[in-house]
Write a structure and sequence with these properties.
Length: 454
């Protein structure tokens, strides 16, 4: 059999890593390799421990050699005392111990079992466990010190060429994290974005050109190896920012310079910086749709008043595609110190889209709602009926300044509001909206009567 040639990372000429959102990355590893004419076996070392071997593709970039890939094998059984012992099952090794006189004694022994401990057969006995240590004559051929892809090739002639090995792997992921710093008047925010890279693939990627794909790439579900617990090492990167471009139905972000992504490491690099983005802060309360179709005798029901922050991803302040991630919002207190006031997740957001963040619930503004009247107008079945229902919502404000509360009511079926003490807008086919002014340290009661037909 032809001799195996090791292709180490020292032969590496270029490395590119494209990371997707869902624990998936594309590796493109270029190395200089010397081939013999005819069949060659290349041990391409330091590939990802979570490589998907069926996706591996070897390309000869120089165009100087014609070759055919005959076979490829991924050797992931790595060298360790236990794996070495398993490979010697049924084989002979040396058991070495020191007697009471300090003399070193070596005996030949055959490995009978390695399950829950080792069982050894000597010439005159069988022993469990090891007193002293074991000496192995060599390392088995298919036991590697690092993950290795063995490629069996046939080359038309001898020569040196540059090869690129590309493959998909698990264990690499990225996400976007955003920090929003609200101005004192609450009218604008400074938004900064960070890309958080996590590597649990089993190897380090040094000097890699890193690109990030934002979007949901379709994948066939399969079992994956869970990465080990990550050791966090945060590195704040300075400008310039990553370059962004469209890629089919996705967006591609290219980091401005090569970077190292070490194994079991989390790294952060700057994604964007957008000062003075206009925002709109709202208090929102939402009622329940089921109460329009049934009589409720529960009396007053307390409803949460959500504190929200809204902005538009538009040119002039922001206007770049935003990868999905978490936005953490800070506001300054009376002493000028930034205080955390809430966070929310956003989906992939293209330009000119509106983003609404739910930051939490208001402490000083409260709401309660009750059904004040209910009657059936017509109908005899679940698909042919008409109801009339009346409601009251009391809004209280303990703040020293007035507030506006947006009231959302999801109303089913064909509906109309026949009576109300404040005007509403029909924001959607099933949504009525009121903007209710609540005075400082006071309260306002909203009332309405609705007819619903199915």
């Amino acid at each position: 059999m032809e001799q195996e040639r090791r292709v180490d990372a020292t032969a590496q000429q270029a490395l590119a890593v494209t990371i997707y959102n869902a624990d998936l990355a594309l590796i493109k590893d270029q190395r200089e390799v010397e081939l013999d004419e005819g069949e060659n076996r290349l041990a391409w070392r330091n590939v990802s421990a979570q490589i998907r071997p069926e996706t591996a593709l070897l390309s000869e970039l120089s165009g100087r050699l014609e070759l055919a890939v005959l076979e490829q094998n991924f050797d992931f059984d790595l060298l360790s005392p236990q794996s070495l012992l398993r490979k010697y099952l049924g084989r002979t090794l040396q058991a070495i111990r020191t007697n009471d006189a300090g003399e070193r004694i070596s005996e030949s022994a055959t490995v009978l079992a390695v399950n829950d401990g080792v069982v050894l057969r000597y010439d005159d006995r069988i022993e469990t466990g090891v007193v002293g240590h074991l000496a192995f004559p060599d390392v088995p051929e298919n036991l590697r010190d690092q993950p290795t892809l063995v490629l069996h090739l046939n080359a038309s002639r001898a020569g040196e060429a540059r090869f690129e090995l590309s493959y998909l792997t698990s264990g690499l992921s990225w996400r976007a994290d955003y920090v929003a710093d609200l101005s004192r008047d609450g009218q604008t925010m400074d938004l900064s974005g960070w890309v958080t890279l996590t590597n649990g693939s089993g190897i380090a990627y040094r000097g890699a050109q890193v690109q990030l794909v934002a979007g949901e790439v379709n994948r066939v579900e399969e079992d994956v190896i869970e990465p080990a617990m990550m050791e966090r090492a945060t590195v704040m990167a300075a400008a310039p920012m990553p370059a962004e471009e469209s890629l089919a139905e996705y967006h591609l972000y290219t980091l401005p310079r090569p970077t190292d992504i070490l194994n079991l490491q989390t790294k952060q690099v700057a994604l964007l910086a957008a000062p003075r983005v206009p925002v709109n802060r709202e208090l929102v309360v939402q009622g329940q749709a089921y109460s329009y179709r049934t009589q409720s005798g529960d009396g007053w029901t307390r409803l949460p008043v959500a504190a929200t922050l809204e902005f538009v991803n538009q040119d002039g302040s922001l206007g770049v595609p935003l990868p999905k991630g978490v936005v953490r919002v800070y506001s300054k207190d009376s002493r000028g110190n930034a205080q955390f006031i809430g966070e929310d997740a956003i989906e992939h957001t293209p330009k000119k889209e509106r983003v609404t963040l739910r930051l939490g619930e208001s402490f000083d503004v409260t709401a309660r709602r009750k059904q004040t009247d209910f009657k059936k107008l017509a109908g005899s079945s679940a698909y042919d009926y008409a109801y009339e229902a009346a409601f009251a919502m009391e809004l209280k404000n303990a703040k020293t300044e007035p507030v506006t509360v947006k009231v959302l009511e999801n109303i089913p079926g064909d509906w109309s509001i026949v009576q109300e003490n404040l005007p509403h807008t029909k924001a959607a086919s099933n949504l009525a909206v009121w903007q209710v002014q609540v005075p400082a340290e006071g309260h306002t009661t909203l009332t309405w009567r609705t007819q619903v037909r199915h």
